[in-house]
Design goal:
Layout lengths: L1 E2 L2 E2 L11 H17 L9 H24 L3 H23 L10 H11 L6 H11 L8 H9 L3 H19 L7
Antiparallel strand pairs: 1-2
Length: 178
């Protein structure tokens, strides 16, 4: 289907999106496509963090919408995207606004640890490694249908829940704005 000149790929063998989930997904997509702006040099580090955080929250919302419609692989992809963006927000807050253009969450976390007092425990690193498996560099339909068949509800639910927990913890790393 075409929505605002955006093709939404629906893998074969998945159930149709319900109207609520479709509406939420379209809102997430349109927010990314039509409001994404690279932050400018006049933004404070906190504003830059909030910039990244807003996109990370939209991705986490999209993961929930995909979970509700049984698109398990897309749940994991959107979880990966949400954590990647939030980690990049933390990087821009504490290290540099020139965030490396990488999808390797673990590498970004290592740099954060090397340059700050922040540390990530083994369970968090394990989630980062798990999520990295679901970054979609190859988005061709044949790849997606094979990859989608390898992920089930239980795996998607487990990683989705862990992502929400780690996401909430990552938000605590930002200093309060008192």
């Amino acid at each position: 289907m075409i929505i605002s000149n955006v093709l939404i790929f629906v893998p074969i063998g998945t159930k149709a999106l319900g109207s609520d989930a479709l509406h939420r997904l379209c809102r997430c997509i349109s927010a990314h496509l039509f409001t994404f702006e690279r932050y400018d040099t006049t933004m404070t580090p906190v504003e830059k963090f909030n910039h990244w955080k807003s996109y990370a929250e939209r991705d986490l919302d999209a993961a929930q919408a995909m979970f509700e419609t049984g698109r398990w692989f897309y749940v994991l992809f959107m979880c990966q995207q949400s954590v990647e963006k939030l980690i990049k927000g933390i990087y821009s807050l504490y290290i540099d606004d020139d965030v490396p253009r990488t999808h390797n969450i673990e590498m970004l976390a290592n740099r954060i640890e090397d340059n700050t007092d922040i540390s990530f425990d083994d369970d968090v690193y394990e989630l980062f490694r798990s999520l990295s498996k679901y970054y979609l560099a190859d988005r061709y339909p044949d790849f997606l249908s094979v990859a989608g068949a390898l992920v089930g509800r239980e795996d998607a639910d487990n990683i989705h829940q862990k992502t929400k927990e780690v996401f909430a913890w990552l938000l605590t790393l930002k200093p309060s704005e008192d």
